[in-house]
Amino acid sequence: MTLDVVILAAGQGTRMRSTLPKVLHRLAGKPMVRHVLDTARELEADRLHVVVGHGAERVREALAEYPVRFALQAEQKGTGHAVAQALEGLGDGKVLVLYGDVPLIRRETLAALLEEVDESRMGLLTVTLDDPTGYGRILRNERGQAVAIVEQKDASEKELAIHECNTGIMAMTASQLKRWLPRLSADNAQGEYYLTDIIAMAAAEGVVIATAQPADPLEVEGVNNRLQMAGLERAHQRHIAETLMTQGVALLDPSRLDVRGRLTCGHDVEIDVGCVFEGEVELGEGVRIGAHCVIRDSHIGAESVIEPHSVIEGAVAAGRNRIGPFARLRPGTRLAVGAKVGNFVETKNAEVGEGSKINHLSYVGDARLGRDVNVGAGTITCNYDGANKHRTDIGDDAFIGSNTALVAPVNVGRGATIGAGSTISKDVPDNALAVSRGRQIGKTDWARPTKKTRD
Ligand code: UD1
Ligand code: CA
């Protein structure tokens, strides 16, 4: 059977107090609705439908690269009305209803729910909560079969005492849905078309309502305000931290780690507090990351040490590198084995050869450094002439004295030496010395000026 996934994302999210549509607020660096879509894709859905309403244009834009069919719910008349907007586009197989503000639902939970669906059965995901306030309650008959859902606002005293709640997530066949949805009425406390009313219709037809529970209640937790958003973020991060620790990563404090993307680690990686990992980051065996580093889309090879407060993006460090503290590696940085980048050094589009060192206060951009090059403090590759970028090439074993400006395009030969304070704008041959600075003058018998006294 084919699978259509319908994701409801039309609500306003008033309590977020934000101009951004609720489903675009980010969890682990990714809009909530994208978490849901990515999970739906893992289920290999044939079609993904997103029901948009409030902020429809922004939601459409944010999902531009997803293969999604949008259905517009111009007025929010309830969850049943929302699903009905997608009805026309459905195939004739199974349908799964998800929510753009319930981001952590897992593939396994949904796959199990979908297993239950055929023309004589439907699946309903429920959760038992200590405090069920606000949720629809699951009504069961004397044989324990689920037969209806009653919303909080429509419930009797006795029904309010039920702790088994509707998560909202359910699965059925398209033909069931096409039969039931047009029969919904808005004759209830909220004057809305409740999706939940299809449960009683199913039961009346003798369709079995198979209920399932998520492995972890976090999976079905929705977000209505920023407090819940932050709570879910922390819980999610905690989960990631625990997974990493199980895989052998030493986290100095699992509550002070943020992964916004995917972090892959070898054995015996150690991560100090306050680090943020974004996009795809890979840390090789034995890598140590100091406190408060931000690392994005990078590969850090085995046995490297990143000292605190370093910011690394789009870089590859081959291994046994020492980076920071306070280093900034920008995209296109490639460090060969054992290369060092020290404090207050910025690199961009720079290839640094084996064993080479840029230890202090430098900018190296659009450059290639051979092996065992020593770049002195305060060296700048002047790569930009205001219009175009130019390259600097430094040969093996070259020594660049402190406070050197290398005016690109320029080549410094193998084993060449640049005197401190030089501005180098012409190529330097192999093994040569280049110095370009004003000669020092010396005056003996020099009397310092003295302060004038007023008479
Ligand atoms: C709904 C369920 C309730 C369940 C709870 C779980 C109904 C009638 N009730 O209640 O049983 O326990 O979720 O959180 O389904 N939405 C639209 N268009 C609409 C209305 C809602 O897209 O016209 C979307 C919202 O953006 C939201 C979701 O559907 O993402 C749920 O709507 P909400 O109004 O929060 O439903 P609840 O009252 O919480
Ligand atoms: Ca809700």
UniProtKB/TrEMBL annotation:
Its cofactor is Mg(2+). Mg(2+) binds at residues 101, 224. Residues 5-129 form the MobA-like NTP transferase domain. InterPro entries: Bifunctional_GlmU, GlmU-like, GlmU_C_LbH, Hexapep, Hexapep_transf_CS, MobA-like_NTP_Trfase, Nucleotide-diphossugar_trans, Trimer_LpxA-like_sf. CDD domains: GT2_GlmU_N_bac, LbH_GlmU_C. Catalyzes the last two sequential reactions in the de novo biosynthetic pathway for UDP-N-acetylglucosamine (UDP-GlcNAc). The C-terminal domain catalyzes the transfer of acetyl group from acetyl coenzyme A to glucosamine-1-phosphate (GlcN-1-P) to produce N-acetylglucosamine-1-phosphate (GlcNAc-1-P), which is converted into UDP-GlcNAc by the transfer of uridine 5-monophosphate (from uridine 5-triphosphate), a reaction catalyzed by the N-terminal domain. This is Bifunctional protein GlmU. The gene is glmU.
